[in-house]
């Protein structure tokens, strides 16, 4: 039996003993060490769903996971050289070579279909038939990674770069989201960038913009502690989102604005602060239904509004960046044993004191 964190409904998170999985053909068995609690995990816990996707059955949560390769199923084998070339896309034509047994790995959480128009166009992150760890977007739900052992397609494994410890590697999935959002913004080098919302994704977006060469990065949030994390991630100015007269607001207009708070007010700020001809990227997931925003500014200022969903190849880039940036450890505000998952979720939900909280599956 293995330990797992299972959501049964709104407010009903349980730490349970689950049957140990057997890797199917093409799969790998991974002993999970750390799992990062994501905003979507918190939504499942607090609201019983994310956006339009509601829980229909018990589901293991989690998609930000790292661990160690234990074994492979038929048609998959470990290689001394190391890592797979990309997320699994259906069955492979031949044996899938993953990292050798015993290798520390991060797990790419998406399994795109590989055959739809979006996958054919190189945009597998918006695949219409993807499978994503810990997601209720389809039924049966895709079980997640918050278990002490999980079986996943071997092609989703990524060997950790030399020098990258598993604890920091647990940031790879949200950092990949941030890298994709920054790339959706276009040229960032030498530009003035605004990031609204300094939660974990917002702070990692700041780090991604800094790595892309942004000249200045302004972060906004309602909470002083969140702005402290933003400064640690590389923000050059930190502003209270509810104070338009905050003296920390830069005098110049923004070239690029990335909305990471997931509230309409953040999008409004982006549209009003970006320059004429600038780019706004909506990264935060807005509430379901209609969201009011100053659409007239899109016309009057010829602003480009772009969406950003998840990531694809950026996952590998995120691992390399994490290996080179030990300062990002500062965004990990807590690590708790998996048996304390309920308490850890409460800690992660308290943004007045937390940024990224990890579950440790080796502590039990």
From TrEMBL:
<keyword id="KW-0479">Metal-binding</keyword>
<dbReference type="InterPro" id="IPR002328">
    <property type="entry name" value="ADH_Zn_CS"/>
</dbReference>
<keyword id="KW-0560">Oxidoreductase</keyword>
<dbReference type="InterPro" id="IPR013154">
    <property type="entry name" value="ADH-like_N"/>
</dbReference>
<feature type="domain" description="Alcohol dehydrogenase-like N-terminal">
    <location>
        <begin position="25"/>
        <end position="161"/>
    </location>
</feature>
<dbReference type="InterPro" id="IPR013149">
    <property type="entry name" value="ADH-like_C"/>
</dbReference>
<protein>
    <submittedName>
        <fullName>L-idonate 5-dehydrogenase</fullName>
    </submittedName>
</protein>
<keyword id="KW-0862">Zinc</keyword>
<feature type="domain" description="Alcohol dehydrogenase-like C-terminal">
    <location>
        <begin position="200"/>
        <end position="323"/>
    </location>
</feature>
<dbReference type="Pfam" id="PF00107">
    <property type="entry name" value="ADH_zinc_N"/>
</dbReference>
<comment type="similarity">
    <text>Belongs to the zinc-containing alcohol dehydrogenase family.</text>
</comment>
<dbReference type="Pfam" id="PF08240">
    <property type="entry name" value="ADH_N"/>
</dbReference>
């Amino acid at each position: 039996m293995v330990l797992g964190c299972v959501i049964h409904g709104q407010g009903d998170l349980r730490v349970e003993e689950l049957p140990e999985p057997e890797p199917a053909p093409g799969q790998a068995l991974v002993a999970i060490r750390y799992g990062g609690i994501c905003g979507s995990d918190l939504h499942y816990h607090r609201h019983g769903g994310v956006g339009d996707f509601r829980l229909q059955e018990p589901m293991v949560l989690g998609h930000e996971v790292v661990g160690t390769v234990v074994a492979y199923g038929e048609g998959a084998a470990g290689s001394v050289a190391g890592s797979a070339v990309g997320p699994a896309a259906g069955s492979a034509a031949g044996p899938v070579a993953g990292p050798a047994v015993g290798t520390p790995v991060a797990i790419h959480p998406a399994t795109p279909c590989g055959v739809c128009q979006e996958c054919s166009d190189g945009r597998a992150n918006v695949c219409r038939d993807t499978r994503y760890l810990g997601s209720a977007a389809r039924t049966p739900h895709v079980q997640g990674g918050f278990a002490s052992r999980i079986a996943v397609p071997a092609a989703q494994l990524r060997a950790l770069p030399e020098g990258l410890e598993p604890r920091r590697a647990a940031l790879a999935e949200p950092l990949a989201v941030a890298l994709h959002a920054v790339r959706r913004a276009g040229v960032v080098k030498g530009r003035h960038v605004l990031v609204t919302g300094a939660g974990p994704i917002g702070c990692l977006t700041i780090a991604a913009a800094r790595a892309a060469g942004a000249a200045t990065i302004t972060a906004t949030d309602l909470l002083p502690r969140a702005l402290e994390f933003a400064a640690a991630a590389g923000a050059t100015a930190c502003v209270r989102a509810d104070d338009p007269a905050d003296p920390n607001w830069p005098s110049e207009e923004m070239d690029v604005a990335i909305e990471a708070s997931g509230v309409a007010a953040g999008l409004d700020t982006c549209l009003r602060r970006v320059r004429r001809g600038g780019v706004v990227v909506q990264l935060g997931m807005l509430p379901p239904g209609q969201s009011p925003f100053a659409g007239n500014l899109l016309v009057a200022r010829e602003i480009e509004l772009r969406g950003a969903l998840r990531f694809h190849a950026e996952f590998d880039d995120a691992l390399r960046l994490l290996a080179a940036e030990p300062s990002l450890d500062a965004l990990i505000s807590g690590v708790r044993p998996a048996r304390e998952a309920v308490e850890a979720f409460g800690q992660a939900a308290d943004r007045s004191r937390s940024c990224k909280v990890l579950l440790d599956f080796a502590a039990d």
